[in-house]
């Protein structure tokens, strides 16, 4: 409601946090948190035993000061649960580690040590084309360019999330897009870059009533004229002007 007493949340928005199975005592990071529905869901999970979070907490971050204010207003309705909430305004792809005494911080940039968080919600900025079913105006604004612009940023944020994750922790990557450039391509490149340090978790035993399907294994990448390129090599050999080719990344195509 307008008073924040009751907040409605779409089922698809609840799935990432539900799959993470947040528990009391967990350190949770919401990398791109506003407007805050996933943050409040995580807060309620760490307070599930009725105690003060069981020593757990949630760090909710957003790069926009205005959106952080929106986040704060929503979370304020949770009362004492906010005692285990920290809101930060920072670029998600450059989030620093938490100075926790139990964390192995590695080098000064926090690149090699153990992470700070048991669970990370990585719901990245996206083109939002998957919301067209409830917001038809999305199609009027849609452009191929959106995914080309978003893919590098999404990958940077996901990579930072992996660096901040504790060994044995879980990270949920999600978008509001149907475009494989923003989903499968990002996850595939994330796994490739992280090697054996990161693995894809089979979550089929969780939320068993949830309708789901396997991710795509093959897709083409298009330019503004809807010309399809089956591989980066095909793009490189095309007559597309060099300045336009610079928008593409090898990671946008399926792994070979």
Report on this structure.
The chain has 256 residues and is α/β, with parallel strands linked by helices. It has one domain (17-201): Vaccinia Virus protein VP39 (Rossmann fold). The chain has eight helices and seven strands. It has helices spanning 11-20, 37-46, 65-76, 137-141, 144-164, 184-194, 232-236, 242-245; strands at residues 27-30, 57-62, 85-89, 117-123, 165-174, 221-222, 228-229. Strands 3-2-1-4-5 form a five-stranded parallel sheet, sandwiched between helices. Strand 6 and strand 7 form a beta hairpin. The chain is globular, with a radius of gyration of 19 Å. The relative contact order is 0.12.
Briefly say what this structure is.
This protein is an alpha/beta fold.
Summarize the helices and strands and which ones pair or pack.
Elements: H1 11-20, E1 27-30, H2 37-46, E2 57-62, H3 65-76, E3 85-89, E4 117-123, H4 137-141, H5 144-164, E5 165-174, H6 184-194, E6 221-222, E7 228-229, H7 232-236, H8 242-245
Parallel strand pairs: 1-2, 1-4, 2-3, 4-5
Antiparallel strand pairs: 6-7
Helix pairs in contact: 1-2, 5-6
CATH topology assignment: Rossmann fold
What gyration radius follows from the Cα positions, in whole Å?
19 Å
SSE order, one letter for each helix or strand? HEHEHEEHHEHEEHH
Number of domains: 1
Give the integer mean of the pLDDT values.
90
Characteristics of this structure?
7 strands; Rossmann fold; 8 helices; single chain; 14% strand; 256 residues; five-stranded parallel sheet; alpha/beta; 30% helix; globular
């Amino acid at each position: 409601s307008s008073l924040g007493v009751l907040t409605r949340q779409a089922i698809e928005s609840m799935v990432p946090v539900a799959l993470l199975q947040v528990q009391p005592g967990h350190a949770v990071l919401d990398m791109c948190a506003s407007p805050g529905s996933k943050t409040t869901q995580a807060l309620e999970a760490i307070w599930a035993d009725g105690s003060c979070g069981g020593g757990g907490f949630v760090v909710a971050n957003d790069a926009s000061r205005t959106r952080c204010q929106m986040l704060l207003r929503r979370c304020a309705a949770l009362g004492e649960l906010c005692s285990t909430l920290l809101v930060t305004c920072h670029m998600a792809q450059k989030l620093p580690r938490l100075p926790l005494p139990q964390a192995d911080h590695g080098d000064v940039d926090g690149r090699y040590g153990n992470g700070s968080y048991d669970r990370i919600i990585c719901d990245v900025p996206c083109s939002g084309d998957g919301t067209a079913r409830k917001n038809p105006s999305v199609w009027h604004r849609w452009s191929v360019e959106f995914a080309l612009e978003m893919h590098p940023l999404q990958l940077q944020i996901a990579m930072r999330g992996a660096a901040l994750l504790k060994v044995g922790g879980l990270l949920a990557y999600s978008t509001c897009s149907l475009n494989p450039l923003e989903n499968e391509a990002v996850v595939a490149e994330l796994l490739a870059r992280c090697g054996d340090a990161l693995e894809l978790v089979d979550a089929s035993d969780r939320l068993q009533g949830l309708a789901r399907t396997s991710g795509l294994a093959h897709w083409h990448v298009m330019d503004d004229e809807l010309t399809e390129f089956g591989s980066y090599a095909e793009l490189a050999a095309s007559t597309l002007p060099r300045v336009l080719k610079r928008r593409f990344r090898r990671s946008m195509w399926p792994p070979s």
